[in-house]
Amino acid sequence: MSLAEFREYRGLSQEELGARVNLSANSIRGIEKRKQIPKIDTAIRIAKELEISLRTFCNSIGLDVGNLPKDEEN
To answer: Whole-prediction pTM value?
Structure first.
């Protein structure tokens, strides 16, 4: 699933997610469109807000997570 799909599944607009993680809707849009890569602390906040793992978040924005441990190993 894409980041936008995870956000929509949680019933959040870009503005609402941005407000919850202290980002603008434009920043959320940029991350969703894979034009921006967030700092790790921002990525963690977004993942927590969407109730997904950091690995899943990275996959959702097209980042290679092949070297990260599997979720069950965390």
So the answer is: 0.87
